[in-house]
Amino acid sequence: MVEDGTLRVGDIEFGLSKTGSGPALLLLPGGGGCGDYLAPVARQVDALVTTYRVEPRGCGRSTHDGNYELSTTLGDLEALRHLLGIERWIVGGHSHGAFLALAYALAHPERTTAVLYIAGAGLQNDRSWHAAYDAGRDTGADREVPQGTYTWNPECNAVANADYKRYVRRCGLWRDVANLRVPFRAVHGETDVRPVWPVEQLVAALPDAQLRIVSGAPHDLWYTHPDELGAVLRDYLVKLGLT
Q1: Residue of 2, 45, 3 whose CA lies nearest to 23
Q2: What is the pLDDT of residues 26-65, one digit of tens each?
């Protein structure tokens, strides 16, 4: 089993880094289209879980073949789970990766023990959300990480964003959210330019959901507030009884 490199599933290579020990946690980067940047987050929880930081197809070290649709990505994650011999895992992610984690849980609740939703955008394509985000970004409030931190694939990003907008219009989506019997644990930065109200909607709709706000923290919480983020994630995991 690869510890840090690539893993082949059929004809596709996936960037994969494995750290820690304990129950399995899938951790997905955002973008969409970004390579892995979540090692600092994994270090916060590696004493409690085995973290699999996976780069989806089209991201980082994974195969770039143009097949970046959401359905393909979710199928890839399920194929990876099967290959790794994991019966059920915690699914988590940051930003667009948080959306992927929730979408996976909705598609495969029987394989999901919990969702860790870090700085996600909820399930919306709302004008006021975009206006608030654009205003914050234009003032430079979304530039808390060093230049060059992220590598990304713009083609994958375009497909991911288009699929997200289609997904949030899906008939029956909020019924499925309300019926999801999987613990949902969210964390959001107080100064994140991505408004938190769509995450609050999710928390209100899901049967077992919690949200914690990290005071003064931006979108990439671990760069400025690593201890606070780590404390929230570890507390979630311990209280869920999954470790």
Answers
A1: 45
A2: 999 999 999 999 999 999 999 999 999 999 999 999 999 9
